[in-house]
Amino acid sequence: MKIMISGGGTGGHIFPALAIADAINRLHPSANFLFVGAQGRMEMEKIPAAGYPIEGLWISGFDRQKMWRNFSFPFKLVSSLAKSYRLLKKFKPDAVVGVGGFASGPILEVAHRMGIPTLIQEQNSYPGVTNKLLARKVNRVCVAFEKMDAYFPNEKIVISGNPIRQSLLASNWSRTSARKDLGIAEDQKVVLALGGSLGARTLNQMFAQNTAAIEARPNIFYIWQYGALYEEEYSQSKTAQLPNVKAVKFIDDMARMYAASDLIVARAGALTLTELAALGKAALLIPSPNVAEDHQTKNARRLTESAAAGLLEDKNAVDGGIDRIQELVGQKEVLETYERNIKSFYRADAAERIATEVIKLAQEA
Q: Which of 362, 22, 347 is nearest to 158 (CA)?
């Protein structure tokens, strides 16, 4: 059995893709895989590191804010469609999976035209334009949220949940052992601030512009992940030098950081929310306003409506975010409510559900 998996661009697409591949491997150990990503994006490094082969397409997203940046888009699209055809013709997959990201569109489009069974996995509560267009052509649509028939054909929908890295669930870190390893005192409150693998400017500005407020509360320890795009700008900032701040570009051992934390401050991407739900972590969500169709705000509201997380608008984060964090991290009952309620949003068998659908499609071909 040969399976092609396309997509990437961020950890929010890459890690679910790897989780799906691993699950297919567990259910069908003889399966062969080929990943397809976008040249220059992080999947070109992360996928081979996980032991899977990958090919890159010359493709990028369509910039709706700065139209002049789209001059090369038609050429990239034609190039990607042509390479997609060559890859599909050579690899001859029994099924093709799209997890979102720049590379999903061309591969799924060409696979559909070639009559190869296809499946897309939509992580968010509001789908992007590419997946909405592809949904009319693919055989299955695996989703994480209820009521997605407003965007996808109901007969194609499989409610699967979002798959996450098994390393998080298999971790042996406890709150005590993680803090000891990180050199954090037991009586300190710990806030883990995540801007995603590339970083989030608003969260970084919130830290950099509130040095005095952070320094004034040494009983609160901050783990601040500023991201690869912002290393030069923030790694040597005054806030990053404070004794109650651990500033890092990227976090490899997320299980340890999650275990040590009392409160997570993060964007509201689908992967992050799934990880928080799986681990039962209290969170203050600051959705990015710069994503397609403002889907992160829609993701966050699904949780806040169930008292499963707190919500802070991006526009209020730089000036008011640290005050809100310092207030919230001391509200034990509120945090316990968030921890209890967010667990209901996690489906433990998400990767296996998706893998089963992929295998069915491949065997029916």
A: 347
Burial (CB count <10 Å: 0-12, 13-18, 19+), residue 74: exposed
Rounded Cα distance, 166 and 350, in Å: 11
Residue 69 has pLDDT above 90, yes or no: no
User: Two tokens at 238?
Assistant: 């005054």
Residue 304 pLDDT greater than 80, yes or no: yes
Domain ranges of the chain: 2-162+348-364, 167-345
Q: What is the average pLDDT value for the chain, to the nearest integer? A: 90
Query: What three-state secondary structure class fits 176?
Result: helix
CATH topology for 167-345 is Rossmann fold (3.40.50)
pTM: 0.80
Find where tokens 């889907």 sit. 295
Give residue 18's identity as a one-letter amino acid code. L
Position 197 pLDDT exceeds 80: no
Q: Higher pLDDT residue, 293 or 48?
A: 48
Residue 73 banded pLDDT, cuts 50, 70, 90? low
Domains 2-162+348-364 and 167-345 agree in fold: yes
Q: Which of 310, 262, 264, 266 is nearest to 288 (CA)?
A: 266
Instruction: Examine the pLDDT at 228 and tell me if it is beyond 90.
Output: no
Annotated binding-site ranges: 10-12, 124, 165, 197, 251, 296
In CATH terms, the fold of domain 2-162+348-364 is: Rossmann fold (3.40.50)
Q: Which residues are annotated as a binding site for UDP-N-acetyl-alpha-D-glucosamine?
A: 10-12, 124, 165, 197, 251, 296
For residues 196 and 10, is the Cβ–Cβ distance under 8 A?
yes
The tens digit of pLDDT for each residue in 85-125 reads 999 999 999 999 999 877 889 999 999 999 999 999 998 88
CB-based burial, 270-306: b 16+ in 10 Å, e otherwise: bbbbbbbbbbebbbbbbbbeebbeebbbebbbbbeee
* SS3 state of residue 264: strand
